[in-house]
Amino acid sequence: MGWWVVVEEQRGAGDGRNWSLSETFPFADQPAAEAEALRLAREHQPVYPWSPKSRRVLRVAGGYLVIVEGRTSTFHFRLTVGEET
């Protein structure tokens, strides 16, 4: 048992966008998982958009929602911190 940080991203274009689990990271304790989730919220390079111009990080229940604006479109990804039971 332990704690996990899970990264889910929007992928695809237009009406073909969908959510995809892109990465998972295991941790021994909650503080380490929370710290990594915050680091990833600020630094993770999502698949889309290709040319990120700005990023907004929102703290939400269980993790972060990150909005990334690109040159022609806006995408978002989420990081969830969860405990394995």
Describe the structure.
The chain is of the alpha+beta class and 85 residues long. The protein has one domain (3-83). Helix content is 16%, strand content 54%. The chain is built from one helix and five strands, in the order E-E-H-E-E-E. The protein has one helix spanning 30-43, and strands at 3-11, 18-27, 52-60, 63-70, 74-83. Strands 2-1-5-4-3 form a five-stranded antiparallel sheet, covered by helices on one side. Strand 4 and strand 5 (74-83) form a beta hairpin. The protein starts with a strand and ends with a strand. The relative contact order is 0.29.
- In round numbers, the mean pLDDT is 91
Main sheet, how many strands, which sense, barrel? 5 strands, antiparallel
* Total strand segments: 5
Shape: elongated
Number of helices: 1
Uncertain runs: none
Strand content: over 45%
Summarize it.
It is built from one helix and five strands, in the order E-E-H-E-E-E. By secondary structure, it is an alpha+beta fold.
Defining key terms:
85 residues; alpha+beta
SSE inventory with pairings:
Layout: E1 3-11, E2 18-27, H1 30-43, E3 52-60, E4 63-70, E5 74-83
Antiparallel strand pairs: 1-2, 1-5, 3-4, 4-5
